[in-house]
Amino acid sequence: MVRSRAGHVWRQSMRWAAVAALGLSAALVNAGPASAAEADITGGTLTWGFKQSFRNYVSGGNGNPPIAASNGATINADGTFAFPSTGGTHDAATGATSAEYGGTVVFSYPSHLFTITLANPTVVVSGGTASLKADVDLVTSMTEPVSVRQATVATLAVGDGNPGGGAGTVTGINLAATLTETGASAFNGFYAAGDALDPVSFTFTTGDSGPARPAVAVTPAGGLDPSGATITVEGSGFDPAANGAAGIYVSFGPKVDEHWTNAGVLQVTKWVSAGNEPTESRDKLNADGTFRTTLPVSAVYTDSTGKQVDCTAVQCYVITFAARGSADRSQDTFTPVTFTGAGSGAGDAEQRITATVTGGPLTLGVAGSAVALPAVANGQVASGALHDATVADLRGTNAGWSLVGQVSDFSSSTGGVIAANNLGWAPSAVAVDDPLAGNPGTVVPGAVAAPGAGLGEARALCTSAAGASGGTFTCGAQLNLGVPASAAPGSYTATLTLTLS
Prior knowledge:
Shape: elongated
Structural class: mainly beta
Mean pLDDT: 84
Oligomer: single chain
Number of strands: 34
Strand order of the largest sheet: 1-4-5-7-8-9-11-12
Strand content: 35-45%
Largest sheet: 8 strands, antiparallel, barrel
Distance between the termini: 23 Å
Radius of gyration: 28 Å
Low-confidence stretches: 1-36, 342-347
């Protein structure tokens, strides 16, 4: 007999996109022999969030802690991670780069049966293309463990002067990262090659002489809510000692003539200096010329002269410049920021449409409650089809789910026993077409379990990753019971329990 259960046995939903979020890959780019133009990398930082939906999922788990950084890596205020430079080389003439960063981030979710370790990312640039390498370890009872060292884990979009810099400092700002075939395969195919990951920003310095050039990265730099948003501003290449260590102003607003003396047109300004401690109006400029701060911005505001500024009608920027009215223009940068929408034209009319979506349940249904396997002799395998299980995720959260099966030992009325692990299966899974699904979810069948190493322990029948779990799905399997030579003749029964979480 094969039974299923759901409802009161559900645990918090298991979102296996966590595994895929680190499944990033691209073709390996091997650094060639050092050339005369190559310089050693002496410092810098790489910032990456892997995938925000993955971080949100893991942070709600039962790891202790769910997300931990060590060996020099740190967790930023927005949940992304900073990895310090550990060396590498850069050829200023060709752009060829192998920038190495250190540190370890561990994602732990014991109740969902996995631990993922990501360490030592490396940015490789060669021939106009770029990629990200890393060490990745996956430990889980649901699939075979994975351990790779400096595998290429993502392609990075480069071009139009990004990354750029000079005089010994190079900065890459919000480079789009994309999952590739190698990464998708290495992490069990939970996400497909070509899926977008969080953008990558990095900076590094070499032993080249000369002052670094200021560079700024803004996150997010586009698609902001016109009614208000908080942006993160990261800078590098600034001179903490310039102008008597007065520091810089980090502001938001349109470009105007002599902006350093006309700050009244700007919406918000923070003073960033080496001597500052962080407050709402000031932040610290680090000794290496880097800083990280936030600015609250909105599309429309009234400046100090009483004039209304509309940043959907005029281009606005994050602007940096030397503090205290200095004439030093070497600290000036202008990074464009855009909002959703635009100013309405004459004769426009708008109506705001609202709707409320309450969300639905996560449910499990099974087409039958008993499976009769054919009679076979000792030493043979009895095979049959598991009744299809239907999973409907109507929560609207795309939080992910997992359907797991485990069987009891088989026993006969005469006292015979066949161990639970003698029952194996070969799962299958498909998504059911839904014309109202919008972005239809995806489902992945569990790994094949052979008789002898089968369902005596919990194994996945099918899973749907966080970010793509909404919809209706059908999961099935071919059951294969290996009958040992020592089994006494008789009619055997066991209970297979399916648990949706």
